[in-house]
Design goal:
Layout: E1 2-6, H1 9-23, E2 29-31, E3 38-43, H2 49-60, E4 68-78, E5 86-92, H3 97-111, E6 125-131, E7 147-151, E8 153-162, E9 165-175
Antiparallel strand pairs: 1-3, 1-8, 2-6, 4-5, 4-7, 5-6, 8-9
Length: about 180
């Protein structure tokens, strides 16, 4: 399970444009399907029904969330270096609301024993491709047009792994106002 900010359809189309223009020609990359484009807030991993209910309750207790503006600004490799496993659109959110939601959820999930804080700092991003094995891909020279969108929903997803790839099932959505 994971909690993510949904991306509106017009912005996902622009991110798909980034995939087609900058990544589609690299045979070592597998592009993320459009229906899986999102900004992950918290990755919880495998959980049972009881844990899911606690996560849903934590989402329902989220401080009254307001919509906020997010801008996908650049393409980065994760981890950094010459052989990334993930190619992502780095996101910037100037109001601090995205980080605040992440921190509020993380604190609540830690208190309930559902999550262990990561050592690395929260990095808002959208995974737009994954490496197929070892890849040499340097996105530092890529300069896409920024993609701006208004974040209006935070959703808890269950990721169902299939041979054809992951399927993300929405379990609970909180509307941002």
């Amino acid at each position: 399970m994971f909690v993510a900010v949904e991306i509106p359809a017009d912005a996902t189309r622009e991110l798909v444009g980034w995939q087609q223009k900058y990544l589609a020609g690299h045979h070592t990359l597998r592009l993320t399907p459009v229906e899986q484009l999102h900004v992950t807030l918290i990755f919880l991993g495998q959980s049972g029904e009881n844990e899911r209910d606690l996560v849903v309750a934590q989402l329902e207790d989220l401080a009254p969330p307001a919509a906020f503006e997010v801008t996908a600004t650049s393409i980065i490799g994760l981890p950094g270096g010459r052989s990334p496993r993930v190619i992502a659109a780095e996101c910037v959110e100037l109001s601090g609301r995205l980080a605040a939601i992440h921190n509020e959820l993380a604190a609540g999930f830690v208190a309930k024993g559902l999550y262990k804080r990561e050592k690395r700092p929260f990095l808002p991003h959208v995974t737009i491709a994954r490496a197929r094995g070892r890849t040499l891909f340097d996105p530092s020279e890529i300069r896409p047009e920024p993609v701006k969108f208004t974040a209006v929903r935070v959703t808890l997803y269950n990721s169902i792994l299939k041979a054809s790839g992951a399927l993300h099932e929405a379990l609970k959505t909180v509307q941002l106002t």
